[in-house]
Every structure is written in structure tokens, then in C-alpha cells.
Amino acid sequence: MAEEKVQLPKITAGLIGPQAKFLSYGLSLVSHGDPVVYMQQDQPEVEIILGTEPGTRIMVKLVSHERKKECTEYCLIRCMGDKFLFLIRPPLPGFYKFQIYALLKDEAGPQMLNVYNYLIHCPGSFEDKPFPKQYPLWKNGCYLEEPINLPKGIKDPMVRYKVFIPNANDVQVKVGEEWNPLQQTDPGMFEGLVDFSTSYAPGSKAKLNVKFVGNNYNTLLEYSL
């Protein structure tokens, strides 16, 4: 669908694009300089990359414009150095407001400030595939290579995990009550095969649990089975 044929919705002036703190926070647009993003008919997802200052805290919201409904579970946040990568997979055709919030490392919270807003147009309709739930510690420099989804009714019982988690001492995937250790292959990089052959009750979870210091594990990601 050509960009010029897409009629944009009425949006309050100044809502799309950089907001008050964008420049003073040292943020930069790495992938998409235009605040209006047009996806193609056959394009199920888009990745937006934001450059930040070291230690910047980030959160996002993805909101369906037509349905007035938040659907942030369709955005996967990943980090590469001081860049945040937002993989967005809209669940239905239409317009989506993608809102980015930030707070510098040395600024008091807990409220983050809206720093940039995109308007995304998705013309295509694809399979409903939300990403795993991401807990706050996940946004501290982590990157998930696979799996970004666990499909319903897993056909292959062995699922490969590969994830980068800086400063992690141990990483385990807990499926139901079973703990599956991942092996460290490089500093911060953990990978391995996890057995999903057991039939799990509806609503069961697979959790990526990480130990940084001491004996306690923190959940960073949570998949619905």
C-alpha cells in the first residue's frame, strides 16, 4: 500500500515525534527518523532502534488507535550496548501509537517522561503472536535471540534458547516445575535446548530465571504455554 494513499488519523498537534526531554536526554533515532512508520502489506513486524545515554531507563506503550486499547505485549524490548531495539508486531491491521518513556540514570523516579511518539500503520493481518512478558530487570542490557515466541501446541519438543544477559551468574528456564539450565558460551551469553515434551495445563508458564548475586533467582521473561 502506497504511503500517499494512507489517510492518517487526526492526532493532537505535537503528540507525534520528539517530546520535551528528547534532546536534553541525549537520545537519537537510529532506524526511523520519521515519526510516521508505514509497514508493508506483507510485513508482520518492524524494528525501531533508539540510541541512549549509558544507564538510561526505558519503558514503552503500544496502543491501538482505532480500538483505544493498550497492546504492549506485542513489543519486544532488546538492548545492544546503549541502543534499545523495539521489535513491534501489531496484532491487527490499523494504526498504532508507539510511546517511548525515559529517565536518566541519575534522575529520581519513579515516573518516566514521554520522550518520543511514533504512529505506525500496519495494513496486513497476521497470526496473533504476543511476545513474552518482560520484567524490569530485562531492560538492563539484555538481548533475546531465540525463541522470541513459543507457539501454541509446540510441535518440536526441544526448543533452543539463546540469550545475552550481562553480569548473570546462572540462567535457568523453568517450565512448570522443571528447571532447565542454560550453558554460558561467552561472557553474558547463555544457550541450550529446553524440553517441552510434557503436556502442560492451560495457563502454564515458562520462565527465564536469572541469578546475579547470592542464591536468589529473578524472573526476566515469562512465556505463556
UniProtKB/TrEMBL annotation:
Which spans of this chain does the record mark as coiled coil? none
Q: Please name the Pfam families in this protein's record.
A: Ig-like_KY
List residues of the KY-like immunoglobulin-like domain: 20-125
InterPro entries assigned to the protein according to its UniProt record, in alphabetical order = Ig-like_KY, Transglut-like_Superfamily_Mod
State the source organism's domain of life.
Eukaryota
Protein name, UniProt field: KY-like immunoglobulin-like domain-containing protein
